[in-house]
Design brief:
Elements: H1 5-17, H2 20-32, H3 40-55, E1 59-81, E2 93-94, E3 101-109, H4 115-120, H5 122-125, E4 129-133, H6 147-156, E5 161-166, E6 183-185, E7 188-190, E8 200-204, H7 205-217, E9 223-244, E10 249-259, H8 269-293, E11 300-307, H9 315-323, E12 331-336, E13 347-350, H10 355-366, E14 371-374, H11 385-389, E15 394-398, H12 426-443, H13 456-464
Parallel strand pairs: 3-4, 4-5, 5-8, 10-11, 10-12, 12-15, 13-14
Antiparallel strand pairs: 1-9, 2-8, 3-9, 6-7, 9-11, 13-15
Bound molecules: zinc ion (ZN).
């Protein structure tokens, strides 16, 4: 095994002492702010990231354009009949892909929105308004119920609209999230290209709880009206990328990626200025490394990609995979970084079992107190998924699932996802750890790299298996 000690020193030096990491975070979160697809914020962020990759000395830096549909919220209003005596305005935010509509009806509370809870209120739901929560894990069960599941059930039972209370946060905060994620057709996944059927808005926990009290006080007779205006527009969006070319096998690649778009209602600091600033930090560190030790320092190419349109349902990464399909068989590994302020770094999550001992050995050899795990299910929620579907090996960072989630992580997708929620001291550790790993992965000889690409049928089979309870 090559001794990387001197290399690690250069990486660690940049990771911990470069002032860029914090400066870049401030630029993305405070100076640029919301980076919703198809807005000036996204364009400004795209130019900024391109400039940074060039400044750090990456090659073939470009903003690769793709045409897509973005969704825009214009108005959201919830009114009660008779009016409720509440302090301040009744805030609401439409969920992504909610259509424009004006509906009214009786509010029917379905608890956590488990299928059984919907069935019990089946008769009442038709042409009325469903009230549920954004909590994904109902108590006393291991089943995960997503907002998309609840929404599908409400539509199936003929509801006129849906209100989701934000039970993740207190403090009169609404949230947003897509009500449809990907369109699946015959084993292939496509980006969402039309609005969903009925309007769906979020309200704060405080308002949701008040609605529940009013329902019981009035023997189930609380009426609400939802009025939303939203639009879908064709836009040009951009994935920003750059390479550190391999000195021996430049055609073979390791991809490090993070999405730079963010929710329309916040500076999207945790989700995902954190990930994209760590990506810039790794690019800076490894570029300096190559400069210091020469062309052959990285035997294979490292490609850095900042994806856009992730929050609209992986539209940037789907477009990339579509365009670069022929190169995918030469992608050794994809490392995707999302919400790095969710919890302390605890290890790596891998989707193919043969990589687990490989990365555990790599971690042990580096002397790091981390562990390598097999992901018990195929994660469809991030930009790695279009690569997984094409059989490419994936590595994700283990930060919060199962244990050790930071309380501030709950603010993602709300207006309170601001820079102060990021645990700044963690970020240099992310930069150093991922950069050191990437250095070792690109330099591992072919015969020692254990992972193989999987045929699509195998991935589809893994997807069918139910989510492992956690
Ligand atoms: Zn994200």
């Amino acid at each position: 095994m090559v001794d990387f000690h001197d290399h690690d020193k250069v990486i660690t030096d940049i990771a911990y002492l470069s002032r860029e990491l914090y400066r870049n975070l401030v630029t993305l979160c405070d100076d640029i702010g919301p980076r919703w697809t198809g807005t000036p914020g996204e364009e400004e962020a795209c130019r900024f990231l391109k400039r940074k990759l060039e400044e750090y000395g990456l090659e073939d830096v470009c903003a690769e354009r793709f045409e897509t549909l973005s969704w825009y919220p214009e108005k959201s209003k919830v009114e009660f009949k008779p009016e409720l005596n509440v302090v301040g305005e009744v805030k609401s935010v439409p969920l992504i892909y909610s259509p424009s509509a004006e509906v009214e009806g009786k509010v029917v509370y379905v608890g956590h929105g488990r299928p059984r809870e919907f069935e019990l209120k089946k008769e009442e739901i038709r042409e009325n308004i469903v009230l549920t929560t954004n909590k994904a894990f109902p108590p006393f069960t291991s089943v995960r119920v997503t907002i998309e599941d609840k929404y599908r059930k409400a539509v199936e039972l003929g509801a006129a609209g849906m209100i989701v209370m934000n039970e993740r946060n207190m403090g009169n905060l609404c949230f947003t999230s897509p009500i449809c994620w990907l369109r699946k057709d015959k084993g292939t996944y496509y980006p969402i290209e039309e609005n969903a059927e009925i309007p769906c808005v979020s309200v704060s926990k405080e308002l949701g709880e008040r609605m529940k009290r009013e329902i019981s006080k009035r023997s189930g007779e609380l009426k609400a009206a939802i009025s939303t205006k939203t639009s879908l527009k064709k836009v040009s969006s951009y994935n920003v990328m750059g390479d550190l070319k391999g000195g021996e096998h430049p055609e073979e690649k390791v991809i490090i990626c993070a999405h730079y778009d963010g929710m329309f209602l916040s500076p999207a600091a945790i989700d995902n200025a954190s990930g994209v600033c760590v990506l810039l930090g790794i690019a800076e560190a490894l570029s300096r490394l190559k400069e210091t030790f020469g062309e052959k320092t990285l035997k294979r190419t490292l490609r850095f990609i900042a994806f856009s349109a992730e929050e609209l349902g992986l539209k940037g990464s789907l477009a990339y995979v579509e365009k670069h399909r022929d190169e995918l068989r030469n992608v050794r590994l994809v490392i995707n970084m999302d919400e790095l302020a969710a919890g302390r770094l605890k290890g790596f999550r891998l989707q193919f079992p043969e990589l687990v001992p490989f990365f555990q050995k790599l971690i042990d050899d580096m002397g790091l107190p981390l562990t390598s795990h097999l992901e018990p299910f195929i994660d469809t929620s991030g930009d790695q998924f279009p690569f997984t579907l094409n059989g490419v090996p994936i590595m994700l960072l283990w930060r919060w699932r199962y244990m050790g989630e930071y309380p501030t992580h709950q603010y993602t997708h709300t207006e309170a996802d601001t820079l102060d929620k990021i645990e700044l001291k963690d970020l240099p550790e992310y930069v150093a750890t991922v950069a050191r790993c990437a250095l070792r992965v690109v330099n591992t000889p072919r015969e020692r790299w254990p992972a193989t690409h999987r045929p699509r049928e195998e991935i589809l089979k893994l997807l069918e298996k139910p989510v492992t309870p956690y």
